[in-house]
Records
---
Amino acid sequence: MKPTITLNAIALVVALGFTSCGKQTGTSQAERTANAVASYVAPGEKDEYYLFYSGGHSGQVYVAGIPSLRHISTIPVFAPYPATGYGFDEESKKMLGDFSWGDVHHPALSQTNSKYDGRWLFVNDNANNRIARIDLHDFKTHQILGPIPNSIGNHGSSFITENSEYILCATRFSVPLPKGRVADPKDYEKEFNGMVSGIKVDPKTGEMKVGWQILTPPFDWDLGSTGKGPSSGWAFWTSYNTEMAHDTLEVNSTQKDRDLAAVVNWRAAEKAVAEGKAEMMDGVPIIDPAKVPGVLYFVPIGKSPHGMDVDPTGKWIVAGGKLQPATTVLNFEKVQAAINNKTFEGEFRGVPILKYEAVVEGEVPVGLGPLHTQYDGKGNAYTSMFIDSCIVKWKLPPWTDEEKKDLTKVVLDKVPAHFSTGHLVVAGSDTAQPYGKWCVAMNKLSAGRHINVGPSQPESSQLIDISGEKMKMIAEAYTEPEPHFAQILKVTDVQPTEVYPKDENKDPNAVWEKAQSSVTRNGNQVVAKLMAIRSRFNPDRIDAQVGDELTVHVTNVEQTRDMIHGFGLIEHNINMVMDPGETKTFHIKLTKPGVFPFYCTNFCSALHQEMQGYLVVWKPGEGPSGASGAVGGTK
Ligand code: RUQ
Ligand code: CUA
């Protein structure tokens, strides 16, 4: 295949600014009114869908409503977030470990039988090689797994299998393995390796652990997705840098017309590990695909591809070629046949390369810079165009003979986006039964479409109605930097709790009545058990001494929705926030004498401002009960 567009042409397009792929819609007064009504959620009414979008290097996940596109809440994941006290109490501090940021790219809702089951949302951290689990019963982060051993640059994740058996991950970077081994990047080809990881998910609790890994050449694995239906048990990733360059990647990794995508049989990998065919590295069973045939295959994809998305039937796998003005459609049945018949065009390091012509259904000329593809479940595909700045709707196979001869015929519609769309998300696209109806384009550049906020600008997201034959641009909103992928979940497909029921609070330090609250001393350990209720803390005085270690447990005894209390401690960098029925704990060493007020940080009642108390830190040997005493004040 000849590259149909040169790098220089693309550089030129980028340098000249945005290309456009059509007229802006929604300009007549009637259209504007109709669009406004379509996304309007009147005061007191509710959105129909959740949009969970990744917050990139903010480390967080944001929740918006669809169709309003209003930001509704922030779920802190990889970075402290004082608004919910995340990263201040012992439990969340422990989850964050030594890191105070992450780079969230791809959220994945848990699935049962290729349908969202409303239980968990998993997200990856590209920066520190982690995966986190948000439980949808309370919309909070409950586990952060990692850094994953033998895995650097956890970008090609989190892709969930059809029954949430695994979160599958592939590395963006390669390094000498195991981690900690040093080799000269000049010896990249020989010394560096990438990895595909299977993170096992407990079917009951969602608890993750590293299951197994597959060693790969040092390609930069990119986006991927998991199979279903006929491709059940398989997963797919594109790669760039099959050139295995280690410097000036912009030039050196874009030399080849085609890069090699990975076709992974994860069930075969699981089986190989069970049969003892793996070798341990850093505590993880590692499969060498050259020694265990049937686990990994390569397939060529042009050119520097990015997204690779399986359609709802599981038969079509679409890859976007960043430097090629077409998407490549693989036919999984042909992939299977090529594997069975050994229709290979060679091998790389013992891994067979499937013959391109044998597995490709067609290259659809969608335009410049195709990245990601989503589906509506009605036979249509929607591809985000980074360079053309638009969304292209096109028809999936099967194609007529006439269409096959000229695939421009399957390109159905284009709608401009503003600007440089990265990911897009169609509601439920990665399930067997998409909700369809809405598409959100997540654009990399807002380019001043909003009121001026200085040189650092937000990203823009745009809501597109895909229910009709032609797409309709409906509304836009601005988001925290910087959304990558998102998931859309129907509100009725999840039942979050509104309070933590008292009976379910198993914290041994929870206190529910004044009589249970206490401040006690044991050696230099001072333990305070406080209860928070509108509008006081009980007790509201803690006495201790310099050199003491202070542990404070605060229980919010409210059982009313939205009755949240905070515990901010002046000049100690502490802010816990307790939801109704929740107990949280912090632990600090007291190093300076003084009287330090603590107060409720969450506006909870008319007398919220009165909800305060004192931590009295006496000099050693001083205080109301002398050297050995610690007291709680007014009960
Ligand atoms: S990548 S703009 Cu991090 Cu998902 Cu494609
Ligand atoms: Cu409790 Cu404000």
---
Amino acid sequence: MKKIVMKFGGTSVGTGENIRHVAELVTKYAKDDCRVAVVVSALAGVTNSLIEVACRAKKSDEKHIEAFVKELRQKHDDAISTAIVSKEIQKEVTQIIEKTVSELEKVLTGICYVGDLTPKSKDYVVSFGERLSAPIVWGAIRDHKFETQYFTGKEAGIVTDSNFGEANPLMNFTSHLIHERLSPLLEKGVILVVTGFIAANQDGIVTTVGRGGSDYTATILGVALKADEVWIWTDVDGIMTTDPKIVPTAQMLPQLSYQEAAEMAIFGAKAMHPRALGPVIKENIPVRIRSVFHPENQGTLITKEPIAEPKEAVKAVAMIKDVAMLNVSGAGMVGAPGSYAKVFDVLGKNNINVMMISTAVSEANISFIIKRGMLGRAISNIEIALLDRGGIVSEVTTEDDVAVIAVMGANMKGTLGVASKIFSTVANAGINIRMIAQGSSELNISFVVKEKDGAAVVKAIHQEFHLSKA
Ligand code: ADP
Ligand code: ASP
Ligand code: MG
């Protein structure tokens, strides 16, 4: 009997109707002789709204909390009444939601009075999105008369470090706990429902594994439960040649290697969390990205090696927004061994992830890309540690209105002229490039443009390399 971990993203559980559909899909596979573990995201838009309300609570906006909580309760109550038919189950789930929402209200009021929002308390607030969606999905599955049980990430046994906001699972311990707690139930045919995105550190304090992290939860569970496949159900047919919201004629890619998919995910194809492939690569568990709206399609299968290698050098182009560029310069860096290390050490110690780096042989400056939200933290810490005072850095400049464009394909390796074709396409569109990087893997060429030009660049490259449907 096959074991499948199925993850449903925010759009798949956006409304009560969608949740009903999810329950139908899950129970259909359970009937067809699959053991199913379900991972659910928060209802569409809820995580963003929780972040917003937490930030407003910090500024002591108590009125907003009241209105927010009312709306949140209503949204979930509406979902319950459409997703679940049995009045008895409806009542039970409503009580769970009510209790959870009241707890959230208290937490937000606390933040409001203290006027302080730490990464730790922010994780606690955002964890409520998944804590509210999972019981509804659980209720909808029970409605189909299947045996099912739901767990938070913490209850399931996902243990992470204490890097709040981007926590990393302690994979060995996690696998052990999940296997111990969930495997026996799965073997008995119980449909498991686990909250995505949220976990806990070794002290039991709630953590989150980064935005879009339900994908990550799914692959962690896949490994721990020794699943045959992990399915990421979403609102598009699979991984496409580019975001179909930018180019509607983008094509679905039926097959990708882990490495190719990782290159796409890292550069914000958004179809998947960047670190989600880590656990499954080691265990060689296939991942399938597929559409809840067209479940008859097989979607994109991600495995160790792609079966049929297409000849095209370029397979896909992605745009990652919400990033910022920092340029650090100083004559003191020239010919000074260890000066780059000092810069990255400051960033690393402050938990700032560097997504892309570029430097010239002159060594007088280094440019790098980080998440936009980290910009303030990066500037202040570089300033404290390295700026002037006889230090190596004399100037730090920033641009926060940029986007990274990543052009990806395994056959770019060794194919001449791909870079020149990409850059002349951008030049012909009259768009200026701010920074360039090509990894020596040659699977990916990435460059930075102003965010307002991003969509136009994606369209032009997609067209130049004939990536649209015929
Ligand atoms: P979910 O809520 O299911 O996690 P996401 O919004 O995180 O869904 O990811 C799916 C979205 O990713 C799609 O709606 C699509 O607009 C976007 N996307 C961006 N690039 C790509 C790509 N190359 N292939 C498929 N989807 C992409
Ligand atoms: N709800 C979380 C987010 O919006 C996790 C996820 O959807 O994967 O980032
Ligand atoms: Mg997602």
